[in-house]
Amino acid sequence: MKKIIIINGPNLNLLGKREPNIYGSLSFTDFFETVKEKYSNVNLEYFQSNIEGEIIDKLQTCGFEYDGIILNAAAYTHTSVGIGDAVKAIETPVVEVHISNTFSREAFRHQSFISPHSKGVILGFGLQSYELAIQSFINN
Questions:
Q1: Measured in Å, how far apart are the chain's first and last C-alpha atoms?
Q2: pLDDT, tens digit, for every residue of 96-131?
Q3: 23 in active site
Q4: Range of 78's domain?
């Protein structure tokens, strides 16, 4: 059974409440429960933090033991050299995910410190972006 973790960054704990016109009205907890049932053949875990160092620590902890990491570093995507370096340093492949199409938003969101070190990038498909990332690990 594949072991995959979803790591979410700052403010994603507010999904369902925060800017529903961009992020939807479903909480991530509710979405995650549905996804766990749908992909019962995968050991799925979830971690969220608003703190950059905790995200780096989690990447380092999981980065040598898991089959895949799905990372939505949120705003840290565009600002954190440290998270980008952590993704580069680990062995577990990482798929960078974004709920919104970051290229249709503010210009500063067009840069990612994570993309150059990722297996792939999925963005703009709402919460389905996470499912596409899971499928990318299942199908490889």
A1: 13
A2: 999 977 755 667 666 899 999 999 999 988 999 999
A3: yes
A4: 2-138
